[in-house]
Specification:
Elements (H helix, E strand, L loop, with lengths): L4 H13 E17 L4 E16 L2 E15 L5 E2 L9 H23 L4 H14 L6 H15 L11 H11 L8 H16 L6 H13 L4 H11 L4
Antiparallel strand pairs: 1-2, 2-3, 3-4
């Protein structure tokens, strides 16, 4: 008999006699982005209780574990922090709303009346997902926003805190889920809208600085990007 073979055999037999089993209990469900599947899937939220087994029968509780999130498609389990990542559907909606809010803020700061700026804004909003957006709709929204806040066209963002609040509400939840190039892209879309009717105004620069801050872009990077957007290629 080879050395250790007898001990290994004893361990194997013991493992067959004694073991652990986890009994899972569903406590919730929903839809999430599954990292393993790479797409939106249904999930169950589970809590578990570990038990010591003897000959396959549970005999002693070893405490609770979890909760965990289990994908209904691949059955892989994840920590509950996986639910912090938006679903693909939710992410698309967040991105669409963010571009729409930035466009309105820049138009409001710039006056909102120049046809070239409205065309640039409508193009960006349509590309983000609002396929039916028109220049006339944006102009009406800018007018309504000015009437609601009591701000004159072209007033700085600081003169109307509502705009800054709306920008942060739209961009703060989105920023952690965007790569740096994605955050820069949103800022540059706002810059192109501002530049469509001429150089930046002080109010437009202030709005774009607020956009950059909400996207967690460093101030010097915001300055560089705005300068690059205004430089003919």
């Amino acid at each position: 008999m080879l050395p250790g073979r007898g001990r290994d055999g004893q361990v194997t037999r013991l493992a067959r006699i004694l073991g652990h089993r986890t009994a899972w209990t569903p406590v919730g469900d929903g839809e999430f982005f599954c990292p393993a599947c790479g797409g939106d899937r249904n999930y169950q939220r589970l809590t578990g209780r570990r038990r010591l087994t003897l000959l396959g029968l549970p005999v002693l509780s070893r405490g609770e574990i979890g909760p965990v999130v289990e994908c209904a498609a691949c059955q892989q389990q994840f920590g509950t922090d996986v639910l912090d990542h938006p679903t693909t559907t939710r992410f698309s909606a967040m991105l669409r709303d963010a571009v729409h809010t930035v466009a309105l803020a820049v138009l409001s700061a710039g006056g909102g009346c120049a046809r070239t700026a409205l065309e640039a804004a409508a193009g960006a909003v349509r590309a983000a997902g609002f396929a039916d957006c028109t220049e006339e709709q944006l102009a009406a929204l800018v007018e309504a926003l000015a009437a609601d806040t009591g701000r004159a066209y072209g007033a700085p963002c600081g003169g109307g805190p509502g705009l800054a609040i709306e920008l942060h509400e739209a961009l703060d939840p989105l920023a952690p889920h965007l790569a740096p190039t994605g955050r820069e892209s949103i800022l540059l879309q706002g810059a192109r809208i501002a530049l469509a009717d001429g150089p930046y105004t002080p109010a437009e620069r202030e709005v774009l600085a607020t956009v950059g801050a909400a996207l967690t872009l460093p101030a010097d990077e915001v300055t560089r990007l705005l300068a690059a957007a205004g430089t003919p290629s």
